[in-house]
Structures are given as C-alpha cells and as structure tokens.
Amino acid sequence: QETITWKVQSHWPGASSSYKDSLGRLKDQIEERSDGRLKLQLFEAGSLFKAQETFNAVSRGILEMGTISPSYASDKMSLAGIASGLPFAFRNVWEAAYFHQVLGFEEMLREEAAQHGVYYSTDKVYPTEMVVKEPIESWEDFTSLKIRSSGALQKFLTEAGAAASYIPGGELYTALDSGIVDGAHWGAAQGAYSMALYEIAKYHVQPALNIAGTDAIIVSQKALDKLPADLQKLVKDVLQEQFWYRTNEYQYKERVTLAKAIEEEGVKINTLPDDVQDRLVQVAQEMWDEEGKRSDNAAEALQMLKDYLGKLGYL
Amino acid sequence: MRAITAFMNGVTRLNNAIGQWVSYLVFGMFIFILLEVFLRYAFNSPTVWTNELTQLLFGAYAVLSGGYLMAHRGHVNVDLIYSMFGTRVRAVIDIFTSILFFIFTLALLWFGYDMAQESIGNWETSYSAWNPPIWPVKACIPIATALLVLQGIVKLLEDIAIACNLSYYDPEKDKVVEEDPKGEQL
Amino acid sequence: MSIEALTLLFFGSLLFFVFLGLPLAFVLGGVSVVFLYFTWGFDSFYMVASQIWSTMGSFTLVAIPLFVFMAMILERTGVAKDLYRTMHLWFGGVRGGLAIGTLVICAIFAAMVGISGAAVVAMGTIALPAMLARGYDRSMCLGVINTGGGWGILIPPSIMMILYALISGVSVGKMFAAGVLPGILLMVLTAIYILIRSNLQPHLAPALPPEERGTMREKLVALRSIALPVLIVFMVLGSIMGGITTPTEAAAMGVLGSLIAAAVYRKLDLPLLKEASVRTFKLTGMIMWILFAAHAFSAAYQSMGAQALIEGFMTHIPGGPWGIIIAMMLITFILGMVLDPVGIMLITLPVFLPIVESLGFDPIWFGILFVINMEIGYMTPPFGFNLFYLKGIVPPGITMKDIYKSVIPFVIVEIIGLAILMIFPEIVTYLPDLLF
Ligand code: NA
Ligand code: NA
C-alpha cells in the first residue's frame, strides 16, 4: 500500500509542552488510525520556515501541514485578531470553546482560510496570563508596570496605561531578570515555566488577559484533496477531536504546572483588584470595536461575540 | 562593444550610489534604539514603534548590501587553491562557478518577486501594536537581488573579457578606479 | 536517494565550490537551491526567499552593524591605537603580553555581545593592525582574534545558550551561570598557550626592548588613554547589568560611547562618520549575506531528513555512555565545520537530549560542552563563520590559508579545555548550584 508523508512545520520549539502534547499526539493518532498510510514528519519551530511564514508555505502547498498562531495569518484572515484573543472577553475556557465549536466561529475561520487554500482547525483554546515581579495591588501599580508584550495585547496594555514593549523571546529572561521589564506574558503558567520566568518573577497574575484559540493547525487544501476520501475524513475527524482533547488537557496541565511553580519556586497568585479589572475591561471594549472594523466578517463575529457575552451576563 | 562597457559602468555606478545612501541607515538604527532606551528608562514610556522601525531599517540595510558588496569584491571567499592560478585561469573558473551564483540569485529573484508582489497586493502591514506597512521592506528583496544579479552579470562580462582577451573591459584601468584611496582592501 | 548519499553530495559540492573560490554566500545559497530542486521540487525555492525574509527580521542581529560601527569609529579616532600603546607600555615586557591583553579585551567584548560575528569583526579591526605593527607573528594574531572573538556565545549573555535552553527546557539563568567558569578556563588555557609558545619562540610575540618600556611616569600618563575605552565598556556592560538595556540595545550605547570618544579626540566630523558607515555597511553586508544563505542551507538540509541521519548514527555507537557523549561531540564538531550553529542545534539536539538525560548526564553540563563545541565549529576550517568574518577584514596580504593555519593550535587548546570540562564537570556545575 502507498504511504504518504506530510512535512509539518511547528511554531513550537521542541521543549514546548505543546510540541509533544499537541503535535506529537496528532502524529500518533493519524499514523495509528491510518495504519501508517499517512505519516507526519515533524519540524521544530524555525527549522524550515519561520512561524510567521508558515501560513504562506502551507497556502502555497510547499508544506502539507503546519501549526501557527492565528495572528501570524493576520494579513490573510480578517478574523485573526478576534481568533487570537480580544482582551477581557471570555472569563472561562469553556466559554471560548463553545463560541468556537457550537456558535460557529470556527466555521467562519475555516471559510476565511479556505480562500487561501488552507484548512483551518483550532488546536485548543487557553488563557494568556501575566507574570510580574511585584504584585499589582492598585491601578497605580498597574500603570507603573513595564511589561514585555506583543501584538494586540501590547496595544491593549499600552492603551490601558502600562508601558508595554516588545522584546524578542530570546532576550526575555535577561530583560526580566535585570529589570528592563517588570512583567511579561508568554502563554500562561506552562509558557512562563518553560521560559524559566518564575525563577525571577514570582507573581502569577489572574484573571487572564485573554482566552482564545491562540494555537491553530493548518492543512494545505491541495494536500488534503490528494488523499483518498477515507483519509481526508480521518484527518478532519482527528483534528476535531484534537480541539476538545487538548483544550481539556491544557487546562489540567496549566493547573498542575502552576501548583508546581507555587510549590517549587514559591510563586504566588496575584488576583487583580476589582477596580483594576473594571478599568481594564473598559479599555478592552473600546479595542474590540477596532477589530470589528476590519471586515464584514469581523463585524459579524464581533456582534455574535457581544450577543453571547450579553447572554452570559458579562455585558 | 561600447554598449557593453557603458552597461558595466552604469550598473557599478548604480550599485555604488545606492550603497552609499543605504549605508547611512546605520545612524537611523542607532538613534531609534537610543531613543527607545531613553524613553523607557527615563520616562517609563517605551514606544510601540522604535524597535520595529529599527528592525525594518535593518532588513533593508542588510539585504540591499548585496550588489554593492559584489561591486567591491566584498563577498568573502576562500582563495586557497584559487590564489595559485593566474588571472586568466581564475577568470575561467569564475565563469564556471557563476552558474551556481545565477542559480541562487535567479531563484531568489523569482520567489522574492513573488513574495513582494503578494505583499504589495494587499499592502501588507505587520499587525503588531504599531502595525506599520512592511511591503516596502519585502519589496527590497527582489530589488536587492536584481541589483546583485546585474552586478553578477558585470562580473561575468569582466571574466569573459579577461578569459578571451576582449577589449570592452580593461582590468588595469578598473584596478585604479577600484583601489581605495587609503590603500586598504575595504 | 538515501540521506547518507545526499549528505555526502550536499557537503561535497559545498566544499568543491568553496575551494573554487566562489564567495561562500553564493555557494551555500546555490547548493541549497540545486538540492531543493531534486528533493522537493521547484516550488520549494520559496523557502530560500522566506529564510532571507526571516533573517532580515531577527532583532538580535541589529547588534552587528552597531558593534561594528562602534569598532570602526574607535579604530579611526585613534582610541584603539592609544589603548594598544598603553597596553604595550605596561605589558610589553612580557612575551605575548599584547596577545593576552587582546584576549582579555575579547572576553570583555564577549560579555557585552550575545553573538559571535560582531566581536570577530570589531576586534579584528582594532587589534590586528595594532599587534602586527608591533612585530607579532601573523598566525599568532589571527589565532588570538579568532578564538577570543568567538567567546561571545560562551560568556553570557549568549543567544546560543538561550536557544539551547529553549530547545532543552533547562533554565536560562543556570546556563548563563554555568558558562562563566568554563569561559574563564578557556581564557586561562589560551593565555598559557600564548605564554609557552612565545617563550619558546620569542619572535612570534616579541617583548618590548627594555629601553622602550618607558618610565613609571610615562606609564602612568599613558593610562589616561584607557579612560575612554573603560567608559565605553562601563556604558555597555553597565546598561545591560543595570537593567537599562537588552544586550542588543546595549550595542547602541557602545556607539554612543565611541562617538563621545571621537569627540574627546576631536575627530568627530562628517568624513569620519561617512567612512565609518560605509565600512560598517560592507562588513555587516558580508556577515548578513552569509547568514542569509546559511539559514537557507540548513533549512534545505533539514528538509532532506538530516535528523533521521543523526538518529541512525546514534544507534550504532559503541563504548557505553561516555562513548555516546564523545560521539555526540564528534558529530557536533564535524557538523560545525560545515553548518551554521542554529541549524546544528535544531538538527541534533532533539536526538541528543533524550539520550543524554536517559544516561543520567546533567543537561546543563552537556549544554556547555555543546556550546563550546559550537564555538570551535565557528573557527574550524574549511567552513567556520569566524574564519570568513576575519577574512573580510584582514589586509590584502593575508590569505585564507594563513587564517586556516593560524587556528589549528588554538582549536587544540579549546579541545583540551573541552576534555577538562568532561573530566571535571564541577567546573560547569559549581556556579549554577551555588546561585540557584
Ligand atoms: Na556573550
Ligand atoms: Na567550522
């Protein structure tokens, strides 16, 4: 029987838990269920293409599969901004999962990606949380912070009054250690732990800055179409299961990692005071409307989100 | 023949002029980084644009050096075996190895053009907090590669002239022009 | 075609064209394109363009033009010359004194930068003419700069260590701490080598004749000239350690310092700035085009299945745990001759690390050995970034052959250092255990 091998470029480095847990699982599932007819050859972050280039490579059919953050596809998908997380929208992970899979946001994403020859599937939804060196106990504490950030959250934190600057991942540890910044976000607990940020920043800030489908798996439509019908279905089924499995597992691992950080590194949870949270939500909502202006699609998704949050009693 | 000489001189002059101007971008990078450090440290208000602008300047700066370096023999090579031969043999070797040069640069030109065209097509921005247009820097890739290819053609024409003793190029005359007034290689 | 055969062809054609004198950047780029065509097809050339775009977007590389610019200004204003004159007055009585002084400056430079190219080019510009002018042997000078300039990745801060930490999951802080003593060890070993060699063969690194060594008064007066270099070091290192700048941003502080120095020397004028920026452009461009092509080359090699090759190798290694560690060092060393360090890490570490850990070795200790090996890879012929960077700045009389020959003893010294660290792992683990 014929064996097909797909080249898969990850946006996670090998040490990232998601490299094994998400991509490794995907590989095992697909290879096992297809009896080895479809194989995945995995490449660590940056091996063949830089993260920001992976969408283009998959879209051109040079790579059969890849993992990305939706923000890396911002120029191609007008929904990328909403997919990679509006600040202070959801309060629980299940809310974001329901929004994607049941209310139809995932379907909207898929349609936009399809226009570029890409089959889009969210890997998981999860929170992005900050770590800081000194606890935030007041609005003044927050606005005097220097925070390492990136993308939409950098804009949000800046507009909220903190001093957010972008520092590349490679220099993050040194910058936080020497005090160039007082805080940073890199995923949530697992991200901070993998970057050893807890060694130098002992306060884990909650609630999350956002909760979103920050990791996605993309497949070249060309490659997908070349598969026999049963394998096409298999790939899509595995991806669909992956979302629920990984969203749950990630939550579990977040908690385990945080518990470990508390135990081993003496990390403390810093819950933002209510007035700080209220003011952040205010700033955030102004930013949401900006995202809605990107396209008709984005406006529709934003309206859907607002209706949903209204039902949940948050708006 | 005169047309060939004019072409060669024209390309070299073009690359020289562009290189001269682009080399000043280093001041931009220096000033913007310094500004960022100053604003962040002294006023606790880092900007969203300085580092990214520096990055974009650097990208253009780095890639646009290709043709200028080619004109000044600045792309470093191994002269171990090469230096044992005379000028004509070297020219023949260079004509042969230029195949690899053109394979690389033409592939880069093709796909760099493709990449830039797509970027310009949707006026691509970076989608960072600052969100500046990045298509001009992407467009630098095919532009720089084209300049490099042109200079590579000049080099090939020189080598052919040396190898076949043709009159449109005089290596002795060129040497005088090429030489740095301070007598160093750079 | 099997990956073994591909590897031989891939590296074989690389060496063939390098030795035919085609510039390195075009050899790397051209060979990548040809092999991509036969393994992956025409469309995959997009990867070459894409790798170049990615390299243009690497913020840490911005430090290269800035540090090079700093060196160009220092060299032209005479600050560097005065520094060497002072060093010569003070240490000129010792055979090899200037070479050891250069090593110390290299180590300080290494503490300021996280990457390798900037230091080699900068020190080559400053130190090479100064040493040659004082009768030092060509090989000695080249070797010292090649070795010392490469310490940027070994002495923290180091991009390579951060990358290792990201791939392996060890703590960055511990890696940094672990690199300090080995860095000092290598410095001491290299200094010992210079002392022994220059006492056996005084003509290699001549001492200053007694009548030229100057009086105490002259020596003290000369000390004034180190004030500015010290100020610059203070500005750069101080702003990194004081939490004012990241290592990349610190390069701009270095430029600021050198401009101040130029002003003090009354040399700060437009012609100087113009000349410095053109020279900086040429050297940065040289480094960057090599990096562009090298990144494309390692991506191409990885896409052909390089990792599977290493995996296959590792299953046939005799000699127990130490046999495996030594085999890993050998593989890294050999890959270091032809591939860029980031590529080597991405290809080998995912294979090596699980084995290292299952054998019960400390991944931090292994990481330091790995980084040193990488640093040796930078300076071993035929292909090593430091060698090419150095070639880009030497005066016309010095050939690649001179550079190749010059590194041999220094590579041996580094290998001895590596062996010492393997026998006494405490040198690596002492500081991280103490601090964390
Ligand atoms: Na360093
Ligand atoms: Na090497």
Protein described:
Helices cover 50% and strands 18% of the residues of chain A. Chain A contains 13 helices and 11 strands. Chain A has helices at residues 17-33, 51-59, 80-83, 93-101, 105-114, 139-143, 151-159, 169-178, 189-194, 221-226, 229-265, 274-292, 296-311, and strands spanning 4-9, 38-43, 65-68, 118-128, 130-132, 146-148, 163-165, 183-185, 203-206, 210-220, 268-271. A 6-stranded mixed beta sheet of chain A has the order 7-6-8-5-9-11. A 5-stranded mixed beta sheet of chain A has the order 2-1-3-10-4, with helices on both faces. Chain A is globular. Chain B has 186 residues and is an all-alpha fold. Chain B has one domain. Chain B is 73% helix and 0% strand. Chain B is built from 6 helices and no strands. The relative contact order of chain B is 0.14. Residues 176-186 of chain B have low confidence and may be disordered. Chain C is globular, with a radius of gyration of 22 Å. Chain C is 77% helix and 0% strand. Chain C contains 21 helices and no strands. Chain C has 436 residues and is an all-alpha fold. Chain C has helices at residues 3-19, 24-40, 46-56, 63-77, 79-91, 97-112, 117-133, 138-149, 159-168, 172-200, 216-222, 227-241, 247-264, 270-303, 306-314, 320-338, 341-358, 363-379, 385-393, 400-423, 426-435. Chain C starts with a helix and ends with a helix. Chains in contact: A-B, A-C, B-C. Chains B and C meet through helix 1, helix 2, helix 3, helix 4 and helix 5 of B and helix 1, helix 2, helix 3, helix 4 and helix 13 of C. The structure holds sodium ion (2 copies). One sodium ion is lined by residues 336-337, 377, 380, 383-384 of chain C. One sodium ion binds next to helix 6 of chain C.
